[in-house]
Amino acid sequence: MLKILLKGDLLMGKKAYWLFLAMVLTLGLLAACNGADEDADTDAGEEADADADEENGDDEEAAGEPQEGGEVIVAQSSEPETFLSPYVQGTESSEMTHLIHEPLYAVTPEIDLEPELAADEYELSDDGLEYTVPLRDDVYFHDGEQMTADDVVYTYELFIDEDYTGPRAETFQRLESVEATDDFEVVFTLSEPDAAFELALIYDVHPEHIMGDVDIGDLEEHEQSVTEEAVGTGPFEITDWDHGTSLTLEAFDDHYEKSPLLDTVMVQFVEDDNAALAAFETQEVDFAQISEQDADTGETIEHGDLTSTLGYNYEYIGWNNDNELFEDPDVRRALTMSIDRESIVEAVLMGHGEVAHFPHSPLSDVYTDEIEEIPYDPEGALELFAEAGWEMNEDDRLENEDGELFEFEMVTNNESGRRVDAIVVIQQMLDDVGITMEPQLLEWGAYMDTVQPPDNDDFDAMLGAWALGVDPTPEYIFHSEEAEQGLNYINYESDEFDETVEPNRDVVDPEDRIEILQDAHTIITEDQPYSTLYYYDRVDLYNDRLEGYETHPDEKFYNLHEWWIDE
Question: Where is the Solute-binding protein family domain (predicted)?
């Protein structure tokens, strides 16, 4: 059981609480209570901090001209579940998919779009219904077949197939057809204008000549999805996949413009962040994304360079709205008021992050701080609980008039050291206001099976994180229609939210659309279906012989083809 008993006053002072948390984490009690050594991040600033940028610049200047050849070994805390972009959900699957596949348009470190497989910007018709995308004519798949418009049509028709069961049907709700007007031009036709559609052009393109005759119901188990036979157009191709151990990528020398400098990249699967750090310390791996707790240790490693960059993400507690405990918005607000998020940032993230009061990244145009910030106020939380019918009993437990205790389970994935530590601290904070929360740590696959629709009725609450998409709309996460098959894992339903967010796609003017989306996000902050916790940094540790590395708020292996070894 993940439980730390705290003796003394029911509600401690904030400073004392921080000291307690820091002491617990310093002594490693959280890891001991974990019951296992599984502690890695799975995910979910516009640039690295000044010191990191300076350091990278100095290193590159000293290193001289890029060198070809060699192998780099990178640590990854979980294996990809699929290489098919229409079905990818986990961040690590997405990161691996982008190494072998490519989209029409890629996301830059500034969270803008730039052409990738597209030859240029798209053309939009005057009525806003047709997007004409010119394609490069020099792109080839790893098996030597040329990429054409047929491959793009095949990929995007998957999203609008009536038997499509992936999580992005809502994104393509207004896509009426995809047509190849010649070998290297595609026209997307919408049923009505959609201001967000350009942001749907970031999904990887798959080979029609291999997959075109496969029934859509068989795709998720097809060799292109789950084996080393996956064929893409990216700068690397898979040559070996030793499940549970490693995945080997070799340079695709016939890439149209991104032929890698490295010969080989080996992805070594590690149990957790602790294992990634240990492997880096012993030079078994050259690159690892480590937990915020380990950043200070990482900075002391002689052969390592470390960067800490605000990620395009946030971590949250999702309250399953189908559970009667969490039906009342005031109860959800009281739960948020019971959690000292600032102390978690300082004691769990070691300051590598910031408190999240708004359910989107500060790096996004939709972000605003002109909202009511819910404070850490356990006394105020108890008042709200009392108004909702929950009073402290003689055992200092919240109890309703029927004698039922306020108790529930919270699930998270055990690969994330940040969440494993945070859930224990949250457990104690809730215990201080008379709530019994039992953490349930699951491996990533089991965790996703538990929280994903349609079989997600059995969990009470979840501790998760979003690596955010380019489009800042919250409808894919919170719209009521997304509860059946999409990303609304917590079964949140609000007519006010749905009616507010739905018109956003019809608004062509970007500023007017942002205003609508800010209103929609504000409803979420008021309703509290999520307790947004913090925006966390991406802490990357790489061998000082590794050059060409560039930070990206949303991609671990950004521009991997430009990495090289300074021997």
Answer: 113-477
Tokens of 123: 């053309």
CB 48 within 8 A of CB 307: yes
Residue with tokens 């940094």: 537
Which backbone phi and psi does 279 adopt, to 5 degrees?
-65, -35
In this structure, what DSSP letter does residue 135 have?
B
Regarding pTM above 0.90, the answer is: no
Could you count the other beta carbons within 10 Å of the beta carbon of residue 125? Answer: 13
If we measure between CA atoms, which residue out of 138, 158, 162, 159 comes closest to residue 148?
Answer: 138
Reported as type and span, the H/E element at residue 264 is strand 264-269
Q: Quick check: 439 and 423 in contact, CB under 8 A?
A: yes
Is residue 36 within 8 A of residue 30, CB to CB? The reply is no
Cβ of 564: how many Cβ atoms within 10 Å? 22
Token couple for 358: 């708004």
What does the CA dihedral 112, 369, 537, 443 come to, rounded to 10 degrees? -100
Judge residue 63's burial from the number of C-beta atoms within 10 Å of its C-beta, 0-12 exposed, 13-18 middle, 19 or more buried. Answer: middle
> pLDDT tens track of the chain, all 567 residues?
333 333 233 334 444 444 455 444 444 433 333 333 333 333 333 222 323 333 333 444 445 789 999 999 999 988 888 888 888 877 778 888 888 999 999 989 888 899 999 999 999 999 999 999 999 999 999 999 999 999 999 999 999 999 998 888 888 999 999 999 999 999 999 999 998 898 899 999 999 999 999 999 998 888 888 888 999 999 999 999 998 899 999 999 999 988 999 999 999 999 888 899 999 999 999 999 998 889 999 999 999 999 998 988 999 999 999 999 999 999 999 999 999 999 999 999 999 999 999 999 999 999 999 999 999 999 999 999 999 999 999 999 999 999 999 999 999 998 888 999 999 999 999 999 999 999 999 998 899 999 998 878 889 999 999 988 788 899 989 999 999 878 999 999 999 999 999 999 888 788 899 999 999 999 999 999 999 999 999 899 999 999 999 888 888 899 999 999 998
Return the H-helix or E-strand segment holding 305. Answer: strand 304-310
Domains annotated for the chain, with CATH where assigned, are 14-41+312-376+406-537 (3.10.105.10), 50-80+224-304 (3.40.190.10), 85-218 (3.90.76.10)
Count the neighbouring beta carbons within 10 Å of the beta carbon of residue 1: 7
Rg (CA), the chain: 24
User: What stretches of 162-261 adopt beta strand conformation (E)?
Assistant: 175-182, 185-190, 236-242, 246-251
Q: Three-state SS for 105?
A: strand
Give the chain's end-to-end CA distance (angstroms, integer).
49
Exposed / middle / buried, residue 120 (Cβ in 10 Å: 0-12, 13-18, 19+): exposed
Q: Helix 329-337 vs helix 378-387: angle between axes, to the nearest 10 degrees? A: 160
CB-CB contact of 367 with 361 (8 Å): yes
CA distance 506 to 192: 8
Q: What sign does the CA torsion over 105, 85, 455, 531 have?
A: negative
User: 436 and 281 in contact (C-beta within 8 Å)?
Assistant: no
